[in-house]
Predict the structure.
Amino acid sequence: QVQLVESGGGLVQPGGSLRLSCAASGSIGSIATMAWYRQAPGKQRDLVAIITSGGSTNYADSVKDRFTISRDNAKNTAYLQMNSLKPEDTAVYYCNIKTFFGMGYWGQGTQVTVSS
């Protein structure tokens, strides 16, 4: 059984920072990609950032230069450092992993609210 545990969400003022973590455990095998998605109320779930096993990254245009994704392969953990947060970043953030065997898994989501 594979489990993804996310943490680090919360309430922050505009301009503030948060760091999300996603720890994967269970019979995963090797993880190809680790990614963060977000879903605001009434909107679809969109990709925020993704990182490959080799460390290559890609970001949504709306978060470039503000968010940084990283991973610790030894710990099967992904991180999302979010700086200069804006109210429009408010959403539930979901972790997603894909293995080299083509299996995909989602975390339960963590709420990020940016408000004064």
